[in-house]
Amino acid sequence: MRRGKRPRWMLKIAEERIDILFRMADREFSANPHRSHRYTELARNIAMKYRVRIPREWRRRFCRKCYSFLKPGANCTVRIADGKVNFRCHECGHIMRFPYIREKKDRRRNKIESHTTKEGTDEQITVGAHNKCGESQSDR
Amino acid sequence: MITPRNIFRHELIGLSVRIARSVHRDIQGISGRVVDETRNTLRIEMDDGREITVPKGIAVFHFRTPQGELVEIDGRALVARPEERIKKKFRKP
User: How high is the ipTM of this complex?
Assistant: First the structure.
């Protein structure tokens, strides 16, 4: 085992606890926001102690600077600008920027791939037609 | 999954709890929901909406898991920081 690495079952409990805490934070936010900020802090402590990544669905739900829980529409605004998603925390005014260049690239790649596969299928059809119809297709 | 076997390592916040026995008589029999945890205390929101801070070390707690099982735990097994409890070794007192 690597130095400082925890056994698998501990990491599993840590992951479960992080998920429970964030869900509690989400539920408590409307009634007691200070509790949800506290739960975020506890979840982050667990994540740091056991070097577990905070799941993707919760990573954008707390402020990177003041670590308060964020609920879009209540204490945070989400805007898209310059190829980034901007989360503005209303507790401290910090702006978190998440670029979505990877998704953009994927979309571009899919576009190109869909073109090429379409041409490929076209070719296959012509090849099949060529086999059937003889030389009339290949002359073109 | 919170089971009776790993409950003292798992998240206590959100569970419903009853104080079964305590050195301090006034807090004995209190029931409610855990809303916060520190190294030495649990903060319990009682059924009438009041919050009370209870030291872990002096009481025996009855927790109810989300599956509905009742678990009795000596508070002395819980005395540790919330994030440290996962790796805490449990000794029968």
Answer: 0.91
